[in-house]
TrEMBL record:
A motif (GXGXXG) lies at residues 8-13. Signal peptide: none annotated. A motif (GXSXG) lies at residues 36-40. It comes from Flaviramulus basaltis. Keywords: Hydrolase, Lipid degradation, Lipid metabolism. Pfam families: Patatin. This is Predicted phospholipase, patatin/cPLA2 family. Residues 4-195 form the PNPLA domain. SUPFAM superfamilies: FabD/lysophospholipase-like (SSF52151). A motif (DGA/G) lies at residues 182-184. One of its GO terms (biological process) is lipid catabolic process.
Length: 303
């Protein structure tokens, strides 16, 4: 059973889309199971439904208004570099309303329902073994994996949305008596879960460079510094997920193929820039092509 796993990574998900497009269209890899966290959760239902061109168009054209109903960020530009700053008015308004998050992402919930259709939901249930999204149960301090097989269309759309809610900048969601947030708060790359669900070969797209050693530019105000610190913590979770995934693959004799980004794509994955995301999609496509060609060449030499 073949599985495609896509990590969290915000706007960098465009790169994963390019990798997946090459693997599915050009390599002809037919996946039985799809697992995603955060931005990966947005991609995997469309990939499972075979809607690659559609998700390419949707993903590379997404903007802040498609994500945030209340946007806690202001994007500024200095010396050809974009950086994030706090929107004091929106954040103050959240405090006045006694909300626990700086922003709200109800626009993303509507965006998911608009582009992931009921017909595609039924097609996946009929033709694929599973599509799974990762969420963090903050009430129980644990990670949960939500399968398309276990929920109605409306419920599964909610779980996709919840998987993407980067707390405390996006919505904190109460469902079934528990409070949930971004799956990346517990598991950024669900490789091990794919193996536990029966995968014998896993292609995992990791939206970070293989060598994570680089000098990060820290924020110049408490708000942007907080974003940097959250990014640092998620990097550590991601490292652990990869190590655990490699061990699980080795113990169960599972073929594991890892697709990293060749370089650091962005300092802030909460910036959704059409030009950059279009470039990242193309980069992912050509990186996957190069990696697959190198693997084929090595196999020929060994043979």
């Amino acid at each position: 059973m073949k599985a495609l796993v896509i990590s969290g990574g915000g706007s960098k998900g465009a790169y994963a889309g390019g990798v997946a497009e090459y693997l599915i269209k050009e390599e002809g890899r037919n996946y039985d199971m799809f697992l995603g966290t955060s931005t990966g959760s947005l991609l995997v239902p469309h990939l499972a439904a075979g809607q690659i061109d559609k998700i390419h168009q949707v993903f590379t054209n997404v903007n802040q208004n498609d994500i945030f109903s209340i946007n806690p960020f202001v994007m500024r530009k200095k010396d050809d570099r974009e950086y994030v700053s706090i929107d004091f008015i929106n954040t103050l308004w959240q405090f006045i309303k006694m909300k626990r998050t700086f922003g709200e992402s109800k626009s993303l919930r509507r965006h998911i329902r608009k582009h992931f259709t009921y017909e595609e939901y039924n097609l996946i249930r009929a033709t694929k073994d599973d599509v799974v999204v990762t969420v963090a149960n903050l009430s129980k301090n644990g990670v949960e994996y939500k399968s398309i097989k276990d929920f109605s269309y409306d419920e599964f759309c909610d779980w996709i949305w919840i998987s993407c809610n980067y707390i405390p900048f996006m919505s904190l969601v109460k469902k079934n008596g528990f409070e949930y947030g971004d799956g990346g708060l517990g598991c950024v790359v669900p490789i091990r879960e794919a193996i536990l669900r029966g995968a014998t070969e896993v292609d995992a797209v990791i939206l970070e460079s293989e060598n994570m050693a680089y000098n990060k530019v820290l924020g110049k105000n408490p708000f942007s510094l907080m974003i940097n610190l959250f990014g640092h913590l998620l990097d550590q979770v991601e490292r652990s997920d990869i190590i655990i995934g490699k061990l699980a693959a080795k113990n169960r004799d599972v073929k594991l193929n890892l697709f990293y980004t060749p370089s650091k794509l962005t300092e802030n994955s909460l910036i959704f820039n059409k030009k950059l995301m279009t470039e990242w999609w193309q980069q992912g496509y050509y990186y996957a092509k190069k990696k697959c060609e190198e693997a084929s060449s090595n196999e020929l030499r060994v043979g």
